[in-house]
Amino acid sequence: MLEDGALPDPRVPFQDEMWNAVERTFIATVEWPVKNDGSNRWEFFVVFSEDFKNLYGRIKVVGDGTAANPDKEIILGKDLVYFSMF
Description:
By secondary structure, the chain is mostly beta strands. The protein contains no helices and five strands. The chain has a domain at 17-76. It is 0% helix and 49% strand. It is globular, with a radius of gyration of 14 Å.
């Protein structure tokens, strides 16, 4: 649930996407229309395994620069786990 009590949009597009096929890395940003967990900007840095069944990296949840709302980091593979259905 977002800070205004609404459910998040089912899809929010990535912005500023960059894909490096050699290193299997994906970098992008999501701008939420309403703050989500104290932030409306999430920065993604994702590394895929060679078989693309696992991913690692981080999501930086950008705060507003105050002590009450600092940046947070979600560690992929630890805080958030991805399972391939293929």
